[in-house]
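Dear colleague,

Following up on Tuesday's group meeting, I ran the structure prediction for the two-component complex that the binding team flagged. I've pasted the input sequences exactly as they went in, so you can double-check that nothing got truncated or mislabelled along the way. The structure tokens for the whole assembly follow below. Feel free to forward this to whoever is handling the docking comparison.

Inputs:
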Amino acid sequence: MRWLRHNGILIYAGIAIAYMLLPLFVIAVFSFNDPAGKFNFTWEGFTLVHWENVFSLPDLNEAMAHSLQLAAFSTVLATVLGTLIALALVRYEFFGRRPANFLIVIPMATPEIVIGAALLSMFLIYGIDLGFTTLLIAHVMFSISFVVVVVRSRLIGFDRSLEEAARDLGAGPFETFRLVTLPLIAPGVVSAALLAFALSIDDFVISNFNAGDYVTFPLFIFGASQRGIPVEVYSMATILFIVTVAAMILTVWQQRRAERMASVRPEPG
Amino acid sequence: MRDTVRHRLIPYFLLGPGLIWLILFFVIPLGYMGELSLRSGTLGNFVFDWNFENYTDSLSRFDSQFVRTFIYAGVATIIALLIAYPLAYAIAFRGGRWKNALLLAVVVPFFTTYLIRTIAWQTILGDSGFVVDTLKTLSLLGDDGRLLATPTAVIAGLTYNFLPFMILPIYASLERIDVRLIEAAKDLYSSTRQAFWRVTLPLSAPGVVAGTLLTFIPAAGDYVNAFYLGSTNQAMIGNRIQALYLSERAYPTAAALSFTMMVAILIVVFIYIRFAGSEALMGEEDER
């Protein structure tokens, strides 16, 4: 009884984690399903066909290519813009920092549907054709705030004396940034970029409003859901999942290693 | 002298491009949405004429969806809090060397496409699925009972999909607690239970406030869960906005409805912050 009272919370945590992972498990299992009809909802039997043919649906391939392309462009832009903002907020005292902070927090606290609807309203009023460009504008917009938050949290523990040392040793401001600042904040920037990529490739709501005829992976799924989602989508989602998790574990591991190497510096006191 | 002027301008050069992007594509579009919401006319020829009827119309036409939206999002937020707090507590205080693996497990659902996760729940809660079968065996559900197309399924989906937003801030605030404070309470003869209610819980309040907001706001604006797990009887405001913009093309009504929803959410959030204290929200911002 004592044991249960002591460890009950761990058992609970195990169950909660299992619950969180259950849908991922279901998706992976159903990618091996052999559904009788068009709908992949009930288990009918095991087959590898949909894994063998995972890249055989041209529309699905095109949607995935669109998603990857969009995520790549949006990640680069949002990471650059967001990192610059984070640098300004952490490094400088200036007039207007509170409103600037506010402007960065508020999009994260706005429901996606409002962001999507507002952008669509503006595009409608100006008669702008929806497509890749409008999607890129939207994805960069909602990614910036998240990039700022991630990079800023990394910058807060940043040792400025290293930059001062570089300046004392005759490095110019740009050299200092390239040779000292950037390598030190790189782990934060990489984490932020990964997050921006994940946000973009997963976005449905804002894309739903601003895509026009441009079909991304989530939009393909939405479009297909009325007539039955091909099993290949489950396989593709599993691949995407494995790749992103691997990328994340790899960067965390890399950063740990870098931190261990950087901690060779003498202990204070 | 010129150098200090230049130095003063540096932060504005750094902020400029990003903030201009946010102003052009977030702030200004909200203004245009407001303008669109006051137009009248038919598709292809909407004219701006301060038509406030769009607001009264949309409120009276969709009042039931409004009420439903706030009930669903509120219930989902409370359930998510009840699931998340013990889990965050276990990870923060009992996680040991498994802490990072457990945190990874919490965020990992985000790495699968949102729609696919929701569709997976459609399978799990499906009419011939394992959950419905079990409930029928236990006679908790009638023979022709189903979970899909019920409020239960929509709320379950909302709870699941936004759960990590609840867990992470609570975990972050629990992690930051100085364990010596809890030990001090125990040294001063408080029971484990008292120490939790009087020390741990109040200190983790900022995480709870942030987590409930981060769950409630997206849940209130969601239409994916109601679309896949509900029927038209479970339609939320998001579903109506989406349909009005994208299929009915009744743009002024759609814009008015979006605006009303945004304001309604802001009011709820504002009352909540008043009630819960604002330090929790501003805490992160001042942390430099």
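Chain A has eleven helices and no strands.

Cheers,
M.
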